């Protein structure tokens, strides 16, 4: 019979890409991971891994086994959720991951509601970049996470996760108040300096794609990931930037927000099969209700 712990290691190798990364995620040594995967391969009776140069990749049989593993792990999550639901009350530790703007805007009201309605819950919040959330959910560092993508840069669904849509936000072009824009504001910023996220982040990708959709590559002067700092630089005349609605919740003097036909989409994610866990369900409900406490961005009428 195949060992579930070894199957989990194979699944994580498919997502993380290297044995070293799997070892780090599980606090194992790389040699221990290699030994466990070799044992799994013997149990399976067919090659699951192959060496490509210095890297280890999955064979077609290994890839197919990972697909079945996602279903097996989801079934175990469902079983765990069923047992938790049979116990009295909502209790235990819930590790919540959120990106910075969500920590400032969505989470406070949800945490207050959860502490009031479910005092036996022990809530732990970690601020992470959304790209880190899926791995943290899969390896158990998080139980619930706020993740996002953009309609112009969609992220493929993760087979190991379930999610509930939470919020669609308008994305704004933030410009100094003296900056003139017309019917096509992004095109009007063709010659402007830009403030964008660090290369490799989703925010940087979105800024590049939005500009490329208007026929140019942005001239990025500053790489900044915090939207409060981004707005401060725009107010100082250092460039223009894309800012989603939550990032524009605190108005900044000297900045004008021009709404675009671009949307950032936030969802509540958790391990597949875990939605019936009482603590997970309570967190989802509180986060869905937290939208009512959101401030609206200060968007002056267009002149």
Automatic annotation (TrEMBL):
Gene3D superfamilies referenced in this protein's UniProt entry, alphabetically: Periplasmic binding protein-like II, Winged helix-like DNA-binding domain superfamily/Winged helix DNA-binding domain
Keyword Transcription carried by entry: yes
GO CC term (a single one): protein-DNA complex
UniProt entry keywords in alphabetical sequence: DNA-binding, Transcription, Transcription regulation
Domain HTH lysR-type: 2-59
Entry similarity comment: Belongs to the LysR transcriptional regulatory family.
Name the UniProt record assigns to this protein: DNA-binding transcriptional LysR family regulator
Upper classification of the organism: Bacteria, Bacillati, Actinomycetota, Actinomycetes, Pseudonocardiales
């Amino acid at each position: 019979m195949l060992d579930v712990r070894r199957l989990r290691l194979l699944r994580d190798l498919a997502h993380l890409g290297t044995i070293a990364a799997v070892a780090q995620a599980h606090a194992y040594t790389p040699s221990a991971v290699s030994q466990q995967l070799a044992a799994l391969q013997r149990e399976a009776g067919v090659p699951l891994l192959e060496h490509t140069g210095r890297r280890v990749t999955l064979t077609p049989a290994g890839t197919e086994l990972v697909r079945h593993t996602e279903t097996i792990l989801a079934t175990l999550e469902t079983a765990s959720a069923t047992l938790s639901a049979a116990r009295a009350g909502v209790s235990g530790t819930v590790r919540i991951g959120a990106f910075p703007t969500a920590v400032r805007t969505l989470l406070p009201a949800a945490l207050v509601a959860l502490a009031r309605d479910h005092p036996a819950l022990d809530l732990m919040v970690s601020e992470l970049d959304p790209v880190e959330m899926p791995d943290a959910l899969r390896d158990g560092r998080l139980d619930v996470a706020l993740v996002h993508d953009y309609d112009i840069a969609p992220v493929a669904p993760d087979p190991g996760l379930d999610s509930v849509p939470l919020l669609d936000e308008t994305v704004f072009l933030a410009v100094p108040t003296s900056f003139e824009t017309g019917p096509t504001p992004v095109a009007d910023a063709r010659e402007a300096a830009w403030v964008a996220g660090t290369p490799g982040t989703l925010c940087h990708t979105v800024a590049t794609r939005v500009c490329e959709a208007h026929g140019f590559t942005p001239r990025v002067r500053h790489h900044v990931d915090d939207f409060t700092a981004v707005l401060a630089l725009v107010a100082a005349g250092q460039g223009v930037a894309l800012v989603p609605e939550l990032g524009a919740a605190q108005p900044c003097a000297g900045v004008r927000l021009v709404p675009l036909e671009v949307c950032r989409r936030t969802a509540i994610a958790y391990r597949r099969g875990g939605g019936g866990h009482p603590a997970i369900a309570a967190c989802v409900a509180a986060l869905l209700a937290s939208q009512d406490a959101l401030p609206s961005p200060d968007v002056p009428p267009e002149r």
